[in-house]
Amino acid sequence: MRSTTMRTTLALLVAAQYAEAADAIFPRAESGDGYLSIPVGTIQRPHKVGKRSAIDAVLENMDFFYAIEIGLGTPPQNVTVLVDTGSSELWVNPDCSSAPSQQQEQQCRTLGQYNPRRSRTPPVGPFGREEINYGDPSDSSTQTSVDITYYADVLSFGRTQVKNQTFGVVTSSEGQSQGIMGLAPDVRRGFPGDEPYSLLLNTMADQGVISSRVFSLDLRHASSQTGAIIYGGLDRSKFIGSLEARPIVPGIQGETRLAVNLTTLGLTLDQPQSFKLGSADTNVMLDSGTSLTRMHSAAALPILEALGAQDDGEGYFYVPCSTRNAAGSVDFGFGSKTVRVAFSDFILSAGDSSGDSSGDGSGDDDNSLCYVGLVLTTDQQILGDTVLRAGYFVFDWDNQQVHIAQAADCGSSDIVAVSNGTDAVPNVQGNCNANAATATGTGGPTATRATSNNGPTGTTTTVFTVTSCPVFDIGCKTGVVTTQTIGQAEATASPSPSATGTGGGSGSGGGDEDGGVRPQALTWVFVVLATLALVINIA
Ligand SMILES: *[C@@H]1O[C@H](CO)[C@@H](O)[C@H](O)[C@H]1NC(C)=O
Ligand SMILES: *[C@@H]1O[C@H](CO)[C@@H](O)[C@H](O)[C@H]1NC(C)=O
Ligand SMILES: *[C@@H]1O[C@H](CO)[C@@H](O)[C@H](O)[C@H]1NC(C)=O
Ligand SMILES: *[C@@H]1O[C@H](CO)[C@@H](O)[C@H](O)[C@H]1NC(C)=O
């Protein structure tokens, strides 16, 4: 921790708990013959201060985003950007003063800015402009926007340079506190990748940095420092078994997305159970820019019921932390491949104030409150970070396929470069065996809950007591007690006919009292829990 830069030091003040991770977040990008491996780090997203419930505190402290460092211009100006498979463009310089909270504003200022006047390349620009909107269209509280103008300049990843890459520089933005590197093709123009300008993956292939337009995504767990994006390659030391090739399918409006059809959905506790998946509920976008997984109620309810989850009345679902520590998984099937998401990854731990990164969840006591990393949407379903970090994904734009395996970590990299053609992604086995699939959680305040049933309408009043706070959480006070009223009668209420009209699926869950579902307008908390799926308005 001695040689931290000024920037890192500031970040540490904001996220002291993550000091160790932040310090080592960005080892240099590595290039080999035909590939470029860029380390992906996790950055804690500091939360909003002011009026909030203890539940909000728990959730907010779960939140972090996956980021990489890039160099823009000559000499390189280092900027940290969020890695987003839910959008296509690279842009930098958000208006930090419009960040969702003061802490995020401070953090925003530590992530670096690009000043074209300080680049001697020289850059081309500014030219053109664009407004980009992000969020879940069925949930206005998730929506953010940026206005950008374009520049073309050198992009550096370690020693590797991509010349004359077009990217956005913000002229104004709302609710964003970091730049974004989109990894998806253009939502309207699709896989050609050179319209409205050559997107980064396309340029890399054009300039021979990589042989074909392929990248692998290995997000790993919050406490791990080994995640990576590998352009033009895949790392056999980061998955188990074979890679299953699945066709990339359009999003639910027919637009181009990095989406696939889910084949099965299940849960393993004592034994595997499989749930019925209606045809309207199979399309899932793979979106690293979205923290939580968002599914239709018909698909989500059986999982929530099997977990015994309770609705907190604000659109989130919680379970006793003992469930998180149980040796179970939520199972997402893609063709013949099943990616098992350990409960310890799928359920967000409250941890303890020193951050429970031991990997066994031992910081949770069984009275603690833990949140399920799954919420409801009536729009596009999204497998967010809570699911993606359990998988290894190789995205092949040229063949419009994604190759999927169970992620693991079994030692130092064993990178295979991907060539070109229809079988570009080699049919290689991962080096890891099943025992290597580890899961760890993130730290945050610990809250305990006492529940009582009272009142004529059958409501449940839940009293939350925050028993410990993470160091960085300036606004968090121990002993704060908040009550939440959960209206069980609302379990069947849904404002959206399209969400309930698909029927099926939710039949035989065990708990009578759980699974209260309210797909209603959610609070500002979601602004913090980013959903960086590009919003499209197909004209
Ligand atoms: C940018 O990052 C690189 C390596 O990550 C480092 O060598 C360089 O000094 C940094 N530049 C600035 C201006 O901080
Ligand atoms: C660099 O990119 C700009 C914007 O796309 C383009 O107008 C220009 O011709 C490019 N320059 C070179 C040398 O390729
Ligand atoms: C994906 O699912 C949709 C809806 O069930 C179906 O129409 C489509 O053919 C499927 N596509 C692939 C490639 O499996
Ligand atoms: C693959 O790349 C080689 C060398 O650049 C090129 O000659 C060949 O035509 C490419 N093959 C395909 C199928 O794109």
From TrEMBL:
User: According to the UniProt entry, which residue ranges have a biased composition of type Gly residues?
Assistant: 501-510
Q: Which GO terms describe its biological process?
A: proteolysis
Residue ranges of domain Peptidase A1 in the record = 66-405
Which cysteines does the record link by disulfide bonds?
A: 321-370
* Record's keyword annotation contains Disulfide bond: yes
**What positions does UniProt annotate as the active site of this protein?**
84, 287
Please provide, alphabetically and separated by semicolons, the GO molecular function terms listed in this UniProt record. aspartic-type endopeptidase activity
Task: Write out the biased-composition intervals (Low complexity).
Answer: 489-500
Write out the ranges of the annotated region (Disordered): 114-140, 438-459, 489-516
Alphabetical list of InterPro entries matching this protein = Aspartic_peptidase_A1 (IPR001461), Aspartic_peptidase_AS (IPR001969), PEPTIDASE_A1 (IPR033121), Peptidase_aspartic_dom_sf (IPR021109)
Q: Where is the signal peptide?
A: 1-21
Which UniProt keywords are present, listed alphabetically? Answer: Aspartyl protease, Disulfide bond, Hydrolase, Membrane, Protease, Signal, Transmembrane, Transmembrane helix
Q: Where are the transmembrane segments?
A: 521-538
Keyword Membrane attributed: yes
In which domain of life is the source organism classified? Eukaryota
The entry sums up its family as follows: Belongs to the peptidase A1 family.
Q: What is this protein called?
A: Peptidase A1 domain-containing protein
